[in-house]
Structure formats: C-alpha cells, structure tokens
Amino acid sequence: MTESEELGALAKVLTFDLTSRPWIPVLDEDGAQDELSLRDVFARAGELRGVVGDLPTQEFALVRLLLAVAHDALQGPRDTEHWAQLWADEDCFAPVAAYLDGHRERFDLLHPRTPFFQVAQLRTVRDEVFSLNRIVADVPNGEPFFSSRMPAVERLSFAEAARWVVHAHAYDTSGIKTGIDGDDRVKGGKVYPLGVGWAGALGGVLAEGETLRQTLLLNLVAADTSGVRFSREDAPAWRHKPCGPGPSGRTRPAGVRDLYTWQTRRLRLRFDADGAYGVVLGYGDPLAPHNMQGAEPMTAWRRSPAQEKKRGEPVVYLPREHDPDRSTWRGIEALVVGRAEAAQGGEAAKVLRPGILEWIARLVTEGELPRGFLIRARAVGAVYGTQQSVIDEIVDDRLAMAVVLLHQQDRAYARQAIDAVGEAERAVTALGDLATDLARAAGRESEGPRSAARSLGFAALEGPYRVWLRDLATAEDPDAHRTRWQQDTYRHLRQLGERLMSEAGNAAWEGRVVAAKKGSEWLNSALAEKWFLIHLSKALSDPYSFDRAPGDGSARGPNCSSEVPA
Length: 566
What we know:
Elements: H1 3-13, E1 24-28, E2 33-36, H2 38-43, E3 48-51, H3 56-74, H4 80-88, H5 95-102, H6 158-171, E4 177-178, E5 190-191, E6 204-208, H7 212-218, H8 256-260, E7 265-272, E8 275-283, E9 301-303, H9 305-311, E10 317-319, H10 333-336, H11 339-342, E11 351-352, H12 355-365, E12 374-385, E13 390-402, H13 412-442, H14 447-472, H15 478-503, H16 505-510, E14 512-516, E15 519-523, H17 525-539
Antiparallel strand pairs: 1-2, 1-3, 4-5, 6-12, 7-8, 9-10, 9-11, 12-13, 14-15
Helix pairs in contact: 3-5, 3-6, 13-14, 13-15, 13-17, 14-15, 15-17
C-alpha cells in the first residue's frame, strides 16, 4: 500500500470537522483568548472582540474566510436596506448554523475525497512529502533561528494546521516549487514562479468595529455596491467542484465569495492520529493583479503608467501595497478620498481607496451609520524579499476614525484630516532641514542626521495625530480643532529642534563657510535655528502669530520674509 493509499484509509477513520471542532483563535470581551469552531464563532460574534492568530496575515485570511461564509449563508446583503436589517438584528448570523450543516462534508480537514482547501491524493512526481515549514509562515525555509519553533515544525495540531492551510492560499511565497503529478505546467520536475498567494499581493485593509459581529457586518459589501462586481455564479470554494492537481482554467473570480476563498495553491496535509507531520504543496490558480479593483474591495489601488505602456492599455490599476516604513495615518488621503472625488477633470484617479471604505461611505451618507460612529481602519500586508520567495516583514497598523470622514457630501472633516497630515509632512521636512544645516555647519555628512530627524519627527506626531483624528468628529468647530493640531505639532517639533541644537556640539555653534545658491555663506547653529523656526511656522500656518523668531524680531509666520534657503 502506498503512502497516499494509507492516508486515504486513515482519513476514513479520522475526521476534523471545522464547523464543530474549535480551531479559530478569538479574543473575548474580557480579553481572554479561546478557540472556537466556525459555528460558535458566528453564534458568539456579538460577544467577541475579534479573531487573533499566529500572525496578522493569518487573522486577515481567517476574517476573509468568515466573510465568504457570511455572504453565502445570508445571500447578501442585497442592498443598504437589507444590510440595515442585519445590523439591527443581534441574531443576524442565525442562518449560518444551518448553512454549515448543509456543507459539513466540505469543511472536514481530513476528508478522504474532499479535504477542506486541499486536493485528495495529491502527490509530487517523486512522491515527496515536505516539512510543515512550507506553510508555517513564521519559520522561513533555511532561516529558522529567530523562531520559537526552531529548528523546524515537526508537527501541528489539526486546529493549527487548518489555520495555516487557509493562510497558505492567501500568502504563500512564490519561487520554484516541486512539480505536482498531473500538473501540465511541470518542467523537469518543477513549476517556475507563478506569484504569491492572492492576499500577498494586496495592501490589505479592513474595517474593525467594537465586536467581531460589527467587524463582519462592516465588511459585508452589498451586491449593488458601485465599483464591485458580483454575479449569480459567485460562490465560495466549497460550492465549486473539488480542484484537481493542475490549474482549473479559471482566471477571474465571479465575486467576493469566490475571491476570498480562491485556491491559489494545491496542497495536501500528511497526518496521523496525533496531527499533521508533513505537506505536499504546489501552485494552483494564480490571479493577475492588474485591473482587479472591481473584484477586490479590501485594498487600495494605484494607477500604473509603466503597466499601461507595457500592456498597451489606457488605464491599469495595481494593488497599493503597504510601506512598512510609513504609518497608516500618513496615508490617510488614500483611505478617505472617494473614487469619484479622486477622478477629476475626466482624468482617471491616481489612487482608488478600498471598496470596503467606499461601502462604509455609502452607509454613513445614506444615514445607516451615525456620523460619529468609530471604526478602526486596519492595514495588514506581507512584504516579500528575494524574488518573493520569502516574507521579510509583516505590516499591521490600525487607525481609529469616525465614519463622518467618509461622508460623500460633507467633506469638511475629511479635508481637515488630510490637510493636517500635509502640515505634519511639511513640519517634519523643516526639522529634517535643521538637522541637515547643523551637520553642514559642523562639517559632517548630512543625509544620516536628516533621515534620523525625520523619523523622530513622525514618531513624535504619530500618537498626537491619532488622538486628534479620533476626536475630530466630536469637535464643534473643525477649524478650531485643526488649529489645536497645528499648535501641538509646533510644540512637539520645536522641542525636537531644541534637542538637535543641544546635540549639535561646538563645531556647529562655531560654524563654517558653506556653498549656497549665490556663492557661499557662513552657516552656524544660530542661523540654522532661525531658518528652522521660520519654516516650521510657515508649514503650520503661523499657529502662534504672537510669537517672534529669535534675532531681529521678525514674525514667524506666512508674512515673514522668505529670503532663506529652501
């Protein structure tokens, strides 16, 4: 009997029903962690804070799985009216229990013919079985030394294995993979790179509420949502015919249920009565990312002139991936500016915000959500390295904001939030210029000090901006609230400027002759500080008009002299 035959015989005896067995890690309202079955997650969604996992990317993948279940079980929402009925009904997920019962067989992780998110009897050309490192993303192949699982993943419980199976379809790395028997893409026993799992190509964004119930409903996009494609054929993976070892021939999803459960990989766990001990993993159905904004609502999109030229198409959008060096608050414009607003003068928009936030904008505009309702826009993404064959970093950030910022008619609050970030950028630039001038005055290299000063500046403003943004919706006077932001920013960055001055040393205080636009000039720390205070005040619209710059007493504000180096 071959190993595959032994596995099939074992699977007839063993079962791990994901609808009734605990496997999804959650956080309850008291902050305690637990594991629940699919059935219990939906039954208790109103008393859970959310899904937790081994990695943020795993949480994102599991939430998308729950959304696919909810969309299919509730057959909707059809429109905002249907959604409002679900929002008002504390027991809105009651139909999920019967739905799961109807599809129980497809949710068995160990089923001999239709194992959940796997291919029965899957084998490589040489009948190899690989380490579970292949699917456990916190143990990079060949570099396990900074993992608590060092040196390898010998075994996984069935609950853990199920979570990593879901994660593999969403975030598996690219690279050359061992060929699967029956896959016509195999060349010389290998399949050459076909890209990362679909969610790995995204700068994932989801809206979080106070409870898991709220989170699921906020991300449950209605079928009549503008800009998001749905079709009658839209169905999750467990309602499709089981995959074979090779590609299915499908290249585009029929809707979000299809997309959230898209089978980007072909895999099969190897297991015994004590858990999983190995895996067979190969490529499944890859998805091309260009112009998928009508199918994928959980990422922002950026226009790509390079791809437009390469493909010969007038407009090409690609997922807007997260920058691990840039906090979410600094990119708030991409979250709060609507797609219609972003496209001006007939020109296609450079950036499209996530369809999830377009949907919530519709809810608040139509009055289904109160203007002051707070959500957390959560950004989750994987950053790949070495030809996408490893995960280098994982981005996980949250930004609390009131939904009034998304209101399609009342844009005053959104404009204040965007302009405040612009002021922060200009103010931090002024701080970076100070660091540059102090380094030049001391005869030192300036790029390192400038970069360090900018990092300090953004770090100092991150907490205050998040608090300011959270309170923006309740401000009686948004303009006065903005002025307080300008004053707080000025105070924080002036303190950092004083710190840089004190650390500059005697060489910067004495100064030196440096190159300037009009020949040369004498630069020391006193002159650098004067320029800094002028530029800082300009960046923040002169928040303290009564304050005066040191030296000749000229006002630090929009009306002061601009005869200074940029």
